[in-house]
Design goal:
Elements lengths: L1 H20 L4 E5 L5 E3 H15 L4 E6 L6 E2 L6 E9 L10 E9 L7 E9 L3 E7 L2 E8 L2 E7 L8 E4 L8 H12 L3 E2 L5 H10 L3 E5 L12 H14 L3 E3 L19 E4 L1 H12 L2
Helix pairs in contact: 1-2, 3-6
Bound molecules: 2,5-anhydro-1,6-di-O-phosphono-D-glucitol and manganese (II) ion (2 copies).
2,5-anhydro-1,6-di-O-phosphono-D-glucitol binds next to strand 5.
Length: 280
């Protein structure tokens, strides 16, 4: 696992350089979710593939930017699913973006997730790694990821990050979101799940939601490389991660690009979601 973390760190440093210097034109390709790929999305995917190819313990990789899984080392133990550049449509307006990694054993199932990691490329580059019951924050300084602190979520926060197009929300979802605002919650939503979820984690709590909507009944965010890794980080930090009713990590996956509605937060807010969704 140490080798894997090292290769994520190396990838992150190379991706940071790519973000800083490359132009951001669109390629002529679409990814498996039907989104236009930026040249930068593809470049970041290649950087990670290259770094992971050097690690013998990695059996298979799956990426947001690859249609199919790819075998790397027949004798490897781990399967890694990753989103090389999350929030890439925010690059041209210079908002924070990220990379997300889910490290699985045996097969790509939420229940087989053994470690998860994400990197935030913002004013500073930070890395969060969840493994063996601990969630640790690192800061990139002089080509080295220095340990900063362990992260724990509080029981209740103050931030609300409601994703999806409101016009397409279910009425009970809107009522739940409005209810939190009426209690004094503040809106914090950049449109990048990495910085949005990172903010809630570091400010001690709140709610990030990307619900089922009338146009996207299974939500937008992808299970293997967006939803499950953050579900793992949040639960290990003492928070909760559900699809409205069930724990996200207990859901099955049929296809590597499957999506799910998702809610991440501290106890108070997730209890609220469960209460509303159990009556829906
Ligand atoms: P990606 O750039 O990898 O396709 O992911 C973008 C995701 C996620 O970061 C964010 O939370 C969500 O899309 C935002 O979607 P909306 O614009 O529908 O709110
Ligand atoms: Mn993404
Ligand atoms: Mn992406």
């Amino acid at each position: 696992m140490e080798n894997i973390l090292k290769s994520i760190e190396l990838s992150a440093m190379r991706i940071k350089d790519a973000i800083d210097v490359k132009d951001f034109g669109y390629s002529n390709e679409q990814n498996s979710s039907g989104e236009s790929q930026l040249q930068l999305d593809i470049q970041c995917d290649m950087i990670i593939e290259e770094e992971f190819s050097k690690i013998d313990s990695i059996h298979t990789i799956a990426s947001e930017e690859k249609e199919k899984e790819m075998l790397l080392h027949e004798d490897g133990k781990y399967l890694i699913a990753f989103d090389p550049l999350d929030g890439s449509s925010l690059i041209d307006v210079n908002l924070s973006v990220g990379s997300i990694f889910g490290i699985y054993e045996n097969s790509f199932e939420g229940s087989n997730l053994v470690a998860s990691c994400y990197v935030v490329y913002g004013p500073r580059v930070e890395l969060v790694f969840a493994y063996e019951g601990k969630v640790k924050l690192y800061l990139l300084q002089n080509n080295y990821f220095e340990f900063v602190k362990e992260i724990r979520l509080g029981e209740k926060g103050k931030l609300n990050a409601p994703g999806g197009t409101q016009q397409n929300w279910m009425p009970y979802h809107k009522e739940m979101v409005d209810g939190l605002f009426q209690e004094g919650y503040r809106l914090r939503y950049s449109g990048g799940m990495v910085p949005d979820l990172h903010q809630i984690l570091l400010k001690g709590g709140g709610l990030f939601s990307y619900p089922a909507t009338s146009d996207k009944p299974d939500g937008k965010l992808r299970k293997l490389f967006e939803v499950f890794p953050f579900a793992h980080v949040y639960t290990m930090a003492g928070g909760y991660a559900i699809d409205g009713k069930e724990e996200l990590l207990s859901l099955d996956t049929k296809h590597i690009h499957d999506t799910s509605p998702c809610f991440f937060g501290s106890k108070y807010e997730i209890d609220r979601v469960k209460d509303v969704y159990s009556k829906a």
